[in-house]
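Worked problem 6 (solution included).
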Amino acid sequence: MRARPDPRLPRVSTAPPSPPLHRLLEHSADALQAVGAGRSLNEVLADVPSPLRPGVQALTFHALRHLGAASEVLRALAAKPPAPPVEALLRLALALLWPVPQPPYAAHTLVDQAVVAVRRRSSGAAAFANAVLRRFLRERDARVAQALRAPVARWNHPAWWIEQLQRDWPTQWQALLAAANEHPPMTLRVNRRRASGADYQRRLDAAGRASRLLGDPAFGGQALVLDRPCPVDQLPGFADGEVSVQDASAQRAARLLAADGALAPGARVLDACAAPGGKTAHLLELADLDLLALDSDARRLERVSDTLGRLQLQAELKAADAAQPSAWWDGRLFDAILLDAPCSASGIVRRHPDIRWLRRPTDLPALAALQARLLEALWPLLRPGGRLLYATCSVFKCEGQAQIDAFLQRHGPASATLRPASPGHLLTVPDNPGDGAEPTHDGFYLALIVKT
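Solution. The predicted structure is:
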């Protein structure tokens, strides 16, 4: 018989101790500074020690969603900008002190630990940081009201981004900006080769994870939204390829390309910008295809290989520039082409809040030119009667509707026809078909074009 522990003795925890808050603040401030210098947050977080990474990511996400407001407050409270490391820590702390329904930390704790972090970076700036943060707390209501007069603080997006949405979506721009600061849902795609969505939902229920099955026919009964996100290793059967994480908008792509029996077994398909492989895998779950997955980045193509390996699916993988077919095309026409084109990613900023601060207004015309070049390069590779699905995770019209309108004008109805089933722009507002009270999908654009 196993001896029971003596209740008079203190229990010894086997869990690792939580890192002190000042260390998380230091790494989070470094991340903010790196994003300001143009580095992707995903890249920055990969360099953070793994025990600290979840906490640093949570703090940095929060700060990026309130960075416009924090920056506006700091400009008002500091006569001149402090040194960049101190400025990053103050922006982070002010973002975390910004009034929200459930603040991440008690104000006094946060100020104390922020000052510790500043002192470790620049001992002479600790008193200044303490004064700025405590003054903000004393005058918080007035300082918040003052900051919110600036659109960048009100919406926490760059001014040019706000103006672009106002031009593109004059009646919906406010809802789009508000939705971009919400926490995204975790949406699953059940592998139809392994189970139905309803069957997998029962497995989730048995595991204590509530979910909602999306009823829109566009998802074929295979899409589920979890009530609460969780690590993928806690999803039943994830390691065995029974389920994948994929946003609802992205799940429309493969089904749209394969709709009406367009992809017969053995159909030759090109996924032109395949990484990280979610749409590649979805196509192969739907049909047995001769599929070429192309990506210009060999390292990102490894993620496609990993995804297909987990799902026990096969495709030909090739690292090459889709805009240069002479370097990789074997001359055989494709039955279908998926062009998930490089874009601003303006539709997925709630998942990647650094994007809004990384992009510049000059990026949009450059990206639109690249998208047009890819369309023109790939169109001759499609057989007559074949389908090309153009997709971007963008809400900017220059990367969606305007891009395809221009393409159709260049090629004319005798060569290219837009299928009526094309959803066009999908916005992160709850007025799209299939939405409940809150949108379940990211911003996206999808256009299905048939070669006539």
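Discussion: The first helix runs from residue 21 to 36.
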